[in-house]
Structures are given as C-alpha cells and as structure tokens.
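Quick question: what would this complex look like in 3D?
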Amino acid sequence: MQAKSTVRRGLSLPPYLLLIFPAVTFMVLMYGYPFLSSILRSFINPQGEFSFENYGKTIDLYLKDIGFTLAVTVLSTAVSAVLAILLAVYLRLRQNSISRALAALYKIPIFIPFVVVAQMMNSFLAPHGILNLALAKLNVIDLEHPLQLFNFYGLTFGFVWKMIPFSTLIIHGGFQMIDNSYIEAARSCGAGLGRVITRVLIPMNRSSILVALVLVYSQIVGTFTLPYMLIGGKIPTTITVDIAHRINYFRDFGVANALGVFSYLLVLITAVYYLRSSVRKMTGYQASEG
Amino acid sequence: MNVPAKRILVVTAEIVLLVLVLLLIIGPMMSLFIWSVAHRWYWPNTLPQEVGFEYWKQALGMRTSLAIGAISIIPAFLLSLTIAVVVVIISMLIAIPAGYALAKYRIPFGAVIMFLFLMPNAFPQQPIFVNLLRVFTRWGLSGTVQGVVLVHILVGMVFGVWITSATFRSIPNYLEEAARSVGATRLYTFFHITLPLAAPGLLASSVFVFITSLDEFTGTFFIGLPFVSTLPMTLYSSSGYNMQFASVIAIILLIPSILFMTLIQRVLRAEYVGGMG
C-alpha cells in the first residue's frame, strides 16, 4: 500500500519491483546466503580460523567416494543417454500401435520420487528379490549365489531406471521438430537406417541431447535419497551420503561443506553450460517481445 | 531376405522391445505390490506363502495390532497434505507475480535475477539444506513444521516461477494492450484478461509444486528430522526393518505421481521436469 502511494507522488517505482521483490528476497535469504555460506564455511576449521584443514580431511577420508560419485554419475548418464536416444529414434521413425503403446508406457516413472524409487530398488534388487528370483527361474544365475546389487551396479540401475524416461522425453521432443523431408531426402539418396540416425537425426538434434545429458548428470551428482537408502554407509558410497554422515554423526559442518564444494566442482562444467544457455534463451525471449 | 520375412522379423523385434520395457518398468512396481501384501515370504519361495491386506489395514488405521509392527500412517499423511497445501499457497503467491514480471517486463539486471532462480537446478541442493540447518538451529526452526514448510517452498518455488513465467510468456501482449487501450487499468487487465488465460498453466504449476512438496525428502531429512514425520520420512524410517509397511507407503506415494503424469501427459514439456525454461 505504501509503495503504491509513493508511485502516485511521482517517485515512480517501477511496477515489476513490487512483483519480483518477495521472490527475490526469499531466494537471496534461502538460497543465495546458504550457497555462499557453504563455500565460505568450507574454509573455516573447527577453531573458527581460515584454513584448508577441511579439504585435507576430505581428501584423506573421501577421495575414493568422490571418484565413486563421478564414476556412477558418468556411467548412469552415458547409459541413459544411449538408451534414451535409441528409444527416441524408434518412437520418431515408427508409427504403429506398438510404438504408441511404448510412447505412453515409457513416461510412467518420470514423476515417481526418488524415495519411492529407492524403496522399489531395495526390494527389486535384493539378493532374494524379484530380479534374482526371475533370473534364477530362467537359469541365468544360481539362487545360492544371487547377484549382489546394493552397490555401484544397483545404484547405476536405479539412476538409469529413473533417468531414461526423462531423457527420452527431452530427446524425443527434439526429434519431433525435425521435418520428415530431411529423413526422406537422406533415404532417397540411398542412406540406410544407420546413416539416417548418425548423419541426420542425431546431428540435427544435438542441442536437446546435450540438454538431456547436462540435466541428468547434474541431477545425479546431487541425489541423496537413492544412494542413502540403497547403499547407505557402505564403502564406497556417494558424496551426498558422506555429507549426511558428517552432519548426523559429527555435526561437522566444515568437512560437510568441503564435500559440498567438491560436488559443486563435479557439476561445474554442466552448470555453466546450463546457466549460460538458459539465461541466453530467456533474454532472447524478452528482446523479441519487448 | 524377402520382404514379408523381414517384416515379421521387425514386428517380432518390436514386440520383444515392448515386453522388455514393460517388464523393466512394471517389475520394480510389482515388487512393491507383492511385498505390500506378503504376510509371510521366506526364501527360496518365488511368491509369498501367505498373502493378505493386514499391512494395508494397519497403515490405513483400520486395524491396530502390535503383532506386525505397523502403525497408522494417517497422521503422517495428514501432515504431508497440510504442509503441501500451505506450501502451494505461499509459493504461488510469491511465484505468480515474479513469473509475470519475468515474462512481461524488461528488468534491469534481469539476467542476474534469472541466474538466482536457475542456480538450484544447476548445482546440488544438499549443501544448501546443510547450511540452512545451521541457521535454522540458531533460529529454533530446525525440527519444526515451519522450517520444513520454508524448505519445501524453496524447492517448489523455483519450478513455480519457471512454469508460471513460461505460461505468461505464451499469452500474447496485444491482448493486454487491447484491454488497456480501451481504458482498463493494469490490475483490471491482469485479473480479467491475463489471469483467466493463464489459469490452466498456473493450475499445472500448483499441482506440480504440490507433488514436489508431498514427495520432498532431502530437505525434510536435514531440517525436519527427527520431529517432523512426513510420509516420505515414515517410508524412510520403516524401510530398513519392515519391508511390507514401507512398500505400502511407497505405493501410496506412487499413486499421485502417476496420476499427475497421466493428467499432464498432453502438455508435458521438459520444463515441468527439469526446470528448463
């Protein structure tokens, strides 16, 4: 109300200032401040002095886990990208009842939260879970020696399960923007299926494939729920689980924040790419309309 | 190879693909369902020896027996629901004006503001919760419902702002300009022209924030434990020792996310999922 009267008096407060003020204030206090504090606090030792102690401790104790996090993330991202591209190519090129059924089916896991995915994988991948029972029925494995999956491989399986639908959604969206005439032109020049995929579809859809890779990669690095519920404190585990242990058992914010900075570093390249391309896209919108 | 034989081969391959995808998607869900009705299931039986809905009845508060170690989830469910409703109301009150401003005004330092709203998608959020825990402990907000609501608003609002701003951007400026040119005030134009046109997008955005709050785990874990038991927290704490009960809760949490998926199917775009604008 007060702001409105100042407008009338001619101090001319731009209207967007009022509109955006609550959101920006909230984000500065609830995001900006803790973000900066997570970086600053990583350089403060338990005695309250500036030091690299937390980083020394982190490298001593958790270097293996940082490598584990990177390995799980890279493998899960790569596997989901390849499978998502194949599925999206299939959905783009085939128009029949089977492909329509698949198109409806693949999206189901998109909104299933990680806490539910974790519980699913907990029972599905268990030594005597459905997967092992089914594989034993097919005589692929011996139930006396079931696959142990509460580790690197099970975690990767869980991430891939959750991320393929999301990547397929983005990549398939990109494929649908490619006009049929390009594909037909390539075919009429004698290109086989393989060449149509590698020379037409994928190059023309590079940007949405890149977006899918970036979003999947950065989301996996920051996911806490699935690794925490699937492998927990076993060694090796992910950075996110280590952060929770540092806080819950030791109230050690210094090392937790140093671990946090390592997780920022793991996503640095994808974050820069994501922020740059998003801001550019947004300002592009504004310029074209303003 | 002659043409019909090749055709049969392709269709067979497609059916194999369909069955494989079906098994991979449904398999883990089936696992939850079987566990939720398994009264007795000992290795190496492929299926439970004894099935029934005892755990469901316990969870839904229809029966109380101490024998199977299950509790009623009704309080946790109501708490999650209340938090989600409050979170939707507050985040939308903040996000709608911000989304509108980002879509319709040329804001100085606009890129910096967008940057702030994009950061949570670009970087892991867990260190944020850790540092909020430190601050909230000082302010007496850790372990309280208010603290959890604040964190859920943070998680939901980022999506809220992007989806609302995309919605407002899709409404052509000339409609507002036409209303203004015949004498409507800015507020009148907003409430009578822009808002009704944006309603479907704003609704989708609210439902999305609602689901995000209902499912939120990491922030609640750091800020709310051990006193705020939302549904995901109850699932987590029973996950280690009571497979059946955890499966019941997981299925209850599964339902809204699949329902939302089927409802939004037609307008589903990447920005609803990954926050891409």
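Answer marked as accepted. Chain A has a mean pLDDT of 88.
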